[in-house]
Amino acid sequence: MVLENTPTIKTQRLILRKFRETDVHSFLEIMSDETVNTYLPWFPIATIEEAAAALEERCLSQYQKPSAYHYAICLEDGIPIGYINVGNEPNHDLGYGLRKEFWHKGITTEAAIAVVSRVKEAGYRFITATHDVNNPRSGEVMKKLGMTYRYSYVEQWQPKNISVTFRMYQINFNASDEATYMGYWETYSTHFIEQSI
Q1: Which DSSP string do the residues of 1-36 spell out, in sequence order?
Q2: Which of 67, 89, 108, 192 has the greatest number of beta carbons closer than 10 A?
Q3: At residue 24, what are phi and psi to the nearest 5 degrees?
């Protein structure tokens, strides 16, 4: 596998780059909105101090690892309006969030296609992604990436401490590889396969 640390990617409309300390105000805008954070595990961030701490923990610290794909989603002006990442953990989980005024414009899909292509080129065998069953639009993004539904599971989500049913999607980059990542299935005792997705 190629070791890369969030190389900048440019798409038709977007610049995907590393977050910087100076992005803290933009990060606060993304993470303070209750609507945006409805389907994220964290509570909305309220202050610039909280934003700085979260930016360091969730983004900047990732760049200390040998390999990372943790991007700020920016328009041509270079100001972050969202984020997208693929985790280093065994699940290679794809995650994303976007300020709500930019929803329904295909921005998340455009960013995700570019990042997925990059990790495929770097030698990842697969990626996964999960979404709350109450957030089916996120599942539609996963389908547009060629990901397929594998199973569902129930998790007591922290720190919100709420019970959430997730659907897990996956794409394998080798067409002959039909393996499914079973980590969530094995971790959470309530798991099942839905018949009509």
Answers
A1: ----B---EE-SS-EEE---GGGHHHHHHHHH-TTT
A2: 108
A3: -60, -40
**What pTM was computed for the model?**
0.94
Q: What is the pLDDT of residue 196?
A: 82
108-152 tens-digit pLDDT:
999 999 999 999 999 999 999 999 999 999 999 999 999 999 999
Percent of the chain at pLDDT > 90 equals 88
DSSP code of residue 41: S
Tokens standing for 31?
């993470």
> Please, which residues bridge with residue 96 across strands?
84
Q: Is 95 exposed, middle or buried (0-12, 13-18, 19+ CB in 10 A)?
A: middle
Domain boundaries, the chain: 9-192
The residues, any chain, with a CB within 8 Å of residue 189's CB and separated by 6 or more, are none
149 vs 156: CA distance, rounded Å: 21
CA nearest to 5, candidates 112, 98, 85, 114? 85
What is the tens place of the pLDDT at every residue in 150-159? Answer: 999 999 998 8
Residues in the chain: 197
Pairing of strands 80-86, 148-157: unpaired
What's the angle, vertex CA 125, arms to CA 119 and CA 129, rounded to 5?
Answer: 70
Q: Which CATH architecture has domain 9-192?
A: 3-Layer(aba) Sandwich (3.40)
